[in-house]
UniProtKB/TrEMBL annotation:
Full protein name: FmdB family transcriptional regulator
PANTHER family cross-referenced by the UniProt entry: CONSERVED SERINE RICH PROTEIN, REGULATORY PROTEIN, FMDB FAMILY
InterPro entries, per database record: Regulatory_FmdB_Zinc_ribbon (IPR013429)
Domain Putative regulatory protein FmdB zinc ribbon stretches: 1-42
Organism: Halomonas halophila
């Protein structure tokens, strides 16, 4: 479930709420009790890093296309 950020247009209160994607957005501010909450756009909270990915762990031989492998196709000299 994603964590959504909200900000109240009336009082400026900010909050985070763990909600299902299918859940309706919150509207009532818990601080001032006005129906002025807006859902904010924020960055994703995960990063793809480390081992365990197909490119590094499951491909073999010439099928690997790792950064710094030396050869690149379609590059100009």
């Amino acid at each position: 479930m994603p964590i959504y950020e909200y900000e109240c247009k009336a009082c400026g209160h900010r909050l985070e709420k763990l909600q299902k994607i299918s859940a309706a957005p919150l509207t009532d501010c818990p601080a001032c009790e006005q129906a002025e909450l807006d859902r904010l756009v924020s960055a994703a909270g995960f990063r793809l890093a480390g081992s365990g990915w197909y490119e590094t762990d499951f491909k073999s031989g010439s099928k690997k296309n790792l950064a710094g492998g030396g050869e690149t196709s379609g590059s100009a000299a």
